[in-house]
Amino acid sequence: MSFEVIRHQLPLFEEDGRAAATDDEHGRDLHYLPDLPEEDPYAAGHRTCAGCGPAIQYRWVLKAAGQDTVVAGPTGCMYVANSTYLCTPYTVPWAHTPIASGGSFTSGMAAGYEAMIRKGRYPGPYPNILVMAGDGSAADIGIGSISGALYRNHDALFVCYDNECYANTGIQTSPTTPYAGMTTFTPFGKAIPEGKKLPPKNLAKMMAEGHPHCYVATTTVGYPVDLMNKTRKGLNHVGAAFLHCYTPCQKGWVYQTSMTVELGRRVVESGLFPVWEYDPQERTYRYFHPPVQRPVTDYLAMQGRFGHMLPEHVATTQAGANRNWELIGMDVPQALRDLEDPARHQRLHDEEYSMPLNRGIGA
Ligand SMILES: Cc1ncc(C[n+]2csc(CCOP(=O)(O)OP(=O)(O)O)c2C)c(N)n1
Ligand code: SF4
Ligand SMILES: [Mg+2]
Fold first, then answer.
1. Ion ligand 3 — residues with CB under 5 Å?
2. CB of 131 closer than 6 A to ligand 1?
3. For residue 332, what pLDDT is reported?
4. Other CB atoms closer than 10 Å to residue 117's CB: what's the count?
5. Which of 2, 161, 270, 312 is the most exposed place for a label (fewest CB within 10 A)?
6. Is pTM, for the whole model, over 0.70?
7. Rounded distance, CA 143 to CA 63, Å?
């Protein structure tokens, strides 16, 4: 006898928020936090750094997923800092996996729950199954196992929390470390003044183009409603889904602790991290067009990891951002075109650091 597998359908949060009328001077609504679910599958009591972007992402993803959730975490900061002996923030079942096995472990969980429910050995409904892997795991050491899981279309959400480095082992470069991002393996010096020479791996596009039957999306900790809705869409999608989330690392990037959420917005507003959603039915991309387009210096100058950049490096970064604006279908203002010229820049550490004050966000 075979039993039916009943699945959750999680409702989406209101995108416009409850106070869309109170925009700041840039048209960004201040009170963007939705009425969060009270349940907290990732509760207080973990040991990540103050302002840790991945911890913020973990909390919001798990709030969106809810209490009937099973979660896996490959080795990385979010394993180590959350699983000190006899201390854990999880109020849902959680398992650690080796860094390369997030995809295969999660495939096994998904296949196991399906089989147990069909055979009547687990009452159901089918739980929300997800894995949250760092960029070192998802974009590098464990990319094979995640790609395999996506290809086989296991019903689970595969999240990459991207802090653009191997943080847990001491801030080494990963494939998603941006051009000129300083890490302990990409120090700047006379031979290589920009530090990191290569552009970052376009992980989410690889996942969407390579597994066209999957729901794939990008988001950042600057957009909590977007992040939580994409979590729910990924979980509601029957089959495999992949979410790539930009999550600043306070320790590795060297910025003011309260600026994590602000960075999550500025990276999008400076054209360096396009936010989009791939629809596997239509096989199309839907790109988010931010209300503000900023020079890349508004973003770079907030972080110590870029402090060594010379005018030509800043200009190269601006040219890359301008290519991104075109890619997502936005016009490039002449002022940003002009900034592709190194003569328009100074050394980054001489840039004025404009910190947003008292805007009700980021703190
Ligand atoms: C096969 C293997 N190689 C190397 C390591 C050492 N290691 C442990 S955590 C870690 C960093 C992982 O980086 P990432 O996935 O980006 O997570 P983060 O630490 O940045 O949160 C590394 C390299 C390991 N555990 N297993
Ligand atoms: S090193 Fe970075 S990712 Fe790790 S706990 Fe600290 S802020 Fe979070
Ligand atoms: Mg990382």
1. 134-136, 163, 167
2. no
3. 98
4. 21
5. 2
6. yes
7. 26
